[in-house]
């Protein structure tokens, strides 16, 4: 455990547990996510990575504590957590397929507008939307229905929506799954760029991607945090090699 | 320039419809036909609301009869009291019990202002409470449809069972005047048609603005991916609630105008069958399109009158057949024919093939 846990703007998770009908999906997780670094959550299937994010975004009920900006997140409903500045994406990109790229982004900007302004039509393009289009590289495709975008572009659009809604903490669930090598590289660049002043947490299975971009890696196993540290520290960790990577694949991780 | 043209097309359409209803129809139709058209306009108001909730919001409201009844009975009570004069008691109540006083909840409906207020406020209150309970519990899909349908059945049964207060199955009738205008005068009946048609145009303008507003985009987004909307910081329950309440008010206004036009309000005008009849027009016309519900409701109303004049009893089969054919062959309704046509035209103009993706098809 290093000094970064003391970051004042970190999302602090303490003793978080989630159980489904008696089955403990997560037990006693302590972890903190700080701005300015790309934090990866890895672990075998069923380790509890997505459940952890679900608990922090109000999709499942958890016990313990998770505070961000002085606010307790556990027990808040999903849309309130979003309004507290914590956003997420899902394993399968869910954009509004019948709306255009622009409309998708514009809707995401809505939480910063007074409710009555919903009754008005959109005029022009809000600056935040324009910036996000630029950042995610979809400026040219702004008038396309989101449904016709390529898989990778949909994921970028989702990240763009998080940017527009000005999420200070972003949980990204397997963002690069199914992307081509080029798209992965671009996504990594994108995360670097937007991650400078935000807290970005990525659930990932692709070890190459983790190795290339992670500042901090948290390894989960069977609902607990097994290890945490830099990529090098994780690779050297005996327990991780034992239960997650397995000794046989050690060579390929080091490669 | 094409986008500008495209965005003003709906307004042109509304203007054309207004012209047809307010100028052409009174000039060419007989009093009887005009009165029938007024009735279809009432159903069309309900249909416009259904288009909003079902077409854009994905909520199949099968019980709009409930809100239709709220407006209709408010208006019916007022007109009944107006017809019997100051301090009078409706005939059906005297027949039932000559000594009974006017029920307390009838009394305020002597006031025209109170009645008009209730026609708008009652559906807002009822739809808000219902909607809040339903949407916050995340009831949706078939469960939502069945629930709303059950409410219509329950209210119809309640009205049937409270003959003393509502006239039961016989309903309220025998009206002679409408806000001081005698109903015998054909000129006054034309005035009522004009009011009804204007209200229908008003409903269309409201829905047009809602569709082009950010709310309209949000409603479609909620229809297509409700959970995703939650993670944009909105409570989808509130989005649906607004659409549900607006539709309820439209149904209530339609119901209120139905009373002076039809001259009677009974449970069979708002029960389960009537509520499904409202849906049928919307489905035929095209539920997601701006003009689909209106044109569908007008067509179904017209079809019902003309066909049942010539072959009584066959209309319901024709309607059923149409419903099946449209659902299978033209899921976007009649309005999607226009969209397809426009798509082909635009494709020819711009010189490229029309897009295969249809916004109205969902």
The pLDDT mean of chain B sits at 89
Give the uncertain stretches of chain B in residue-range form: 352-362
Order of helices and strands of chain A: EEEHEEHEHHHEHEHEEHHH
Q: List SSEs of chain B in N-to-C order.
A: HHHHHHHEEEHHHHEHHHH
Helix content of chain B: over 70%
| Strand coverage percent of chain B | under 5%
Q: Strands of the biggest beta sheet of chain A: in what spatial order?
A: 6-7-8-3-9-10
Query: What is the number of beta strands of chain A?
Result: 10
Radius of gyration of chain B: 21 Å
Strand percentage of chain A lies at 15-25%
Overall 3D geometry of chain B?
Answer: globular
Tell me the quaternary state.
heterodimer
Biggest interface in this structure?
Answer: A-B, 34 and 24 residues
Q: What spatial form of chain A do the alpha-carbon principal axes imply?
A: globular
Strand order of the largest sheet of chain B: 1-4
N- and C-termini, Cα separation of chain B: 28 Å
Structural class of chain B: mainly alpha
Please work out how many helical segments of chain A DSSP would assign: 10
Major beta sheet of chain A, specifics? 6 strands, mixed
CATH hierarchy, class of chain A: Alpha Beta
């Amino acid at each position: 455990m290093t000094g970064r846990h003391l970051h004042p703007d970190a999302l602090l998770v303490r003793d978080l547990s989630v159980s489904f009908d008696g089955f403990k999906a997560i037990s006693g997780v302590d972890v903190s996510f700080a701005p300015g670094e790309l934090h990866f959550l890895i672990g075998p299937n069923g380790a509890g990575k997505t459940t952890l994010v679900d608990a922090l975004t109000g999709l499942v009920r958890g016990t313990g504590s998770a505070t961000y900006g002085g606010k307790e997140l556990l027990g808040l409903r999903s849309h309130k957590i979003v309004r507290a500045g914590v956003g997420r994406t899902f394993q399968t990109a869910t954009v509004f397929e019948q709306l255009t790229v622009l409309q998708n982004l514009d809707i995401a900007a809505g939480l910063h507008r007074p409710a009555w302004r919903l009754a008005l039509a959109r005029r022009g393009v809000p600056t935040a939307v324009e910036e996000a289009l630029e950042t995610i590289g979809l400026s040219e495709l702004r008038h396309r229905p989101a449904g016709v975008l390529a898989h990778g572009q949909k994921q970028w659009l989702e990240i763009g929506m998080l940017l527009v809604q000005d999420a200070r903490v972003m949980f990204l669930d397997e963002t690069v799954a199914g992307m081509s090598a080029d798209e992965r590289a671009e996504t990594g660049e994108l995360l670097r760029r937007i991650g400078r002043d935000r807290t970005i947490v990525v659930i990932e299975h692709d070890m190459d991607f983790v190795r290339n971009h992670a500042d901090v890696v948290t390894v989960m196993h069977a609902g607990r945090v097994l290890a945490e540290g830099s990529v090098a520290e994780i690779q050297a960790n005996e327990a991780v090699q034992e239960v997650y990577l397995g000794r046989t694949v050690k060579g390929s991780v080091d490669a | 320039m094409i986008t500008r043209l495209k965005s003003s097309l709906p307004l042109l359409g509304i203007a054309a419809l207004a012209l047809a209803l307010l100028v052409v129809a009174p000039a060419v139709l007989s009093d009887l036909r005009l009165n029938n058209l007024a009735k279809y306009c009432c159903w069309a108001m309900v249909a416009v609301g259904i288009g909003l909730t079902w077409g854009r919001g994905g909520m199949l409201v099968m019980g709009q009869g409930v809100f239709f009844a709220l407006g209709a009975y408010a208006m019916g009570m007022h007109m009944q009291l107006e017809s019997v004069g100051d301090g009078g008691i409706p005939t059906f109540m005297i027949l039932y019990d000559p000594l009974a006083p006017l029920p307390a909840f009838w009394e305020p409906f002597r006031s025209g202002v109170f009645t008009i207020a209730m026609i708008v406020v009652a559906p807002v209150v009822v739809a808000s409470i219902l909607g809040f309970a339903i949407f916050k519990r995340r009831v949706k899909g078939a469960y939502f449809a069945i629930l709303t349908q059950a409410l219509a059945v329950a209210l119809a049964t309640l009205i049937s069972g409270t003959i003393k207060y509502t006239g039961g199955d016989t309903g309220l009738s025998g009206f002679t005047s409408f806000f001081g205008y005698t109903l015998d005068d054909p000129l006054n009946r034309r005035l009522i048609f004009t009011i009804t048609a204007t209200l229908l145009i008003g409903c269309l303008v409201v829905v047009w603005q809602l569709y082009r507003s950010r709310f309209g985009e949000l409603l479609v987004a909620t229809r297509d991916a409700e959970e995703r909307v939650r993670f944009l910081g909105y409570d989808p329950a509130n989005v649906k609630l607004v659409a549900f309440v607006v539709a309820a008010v439209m149904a209530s206004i339609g119901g209120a105008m139905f009373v002076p036009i039809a001259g009677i309000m009974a449970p069979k005008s708002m029960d389960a069958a009537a509520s499904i009849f409202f849906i049928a027009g919307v489905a035929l016309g095209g539920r997601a399109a701006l003009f689909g519900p209106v044109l569908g409701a007008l067509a179904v109303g017209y079809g019902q009158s003309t066909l049942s004049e010539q072959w009584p009893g066959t209309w319901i089969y024709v309607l059923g057949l149409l419903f099946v054919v449209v659902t299978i062959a033209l899921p976007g309704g009649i309005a999607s024919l226009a969209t397809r046509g426009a798509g082909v035209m635009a494709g020819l103009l711009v010189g490229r093939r029309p897009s295969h993706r249809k916004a109205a098809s969902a």
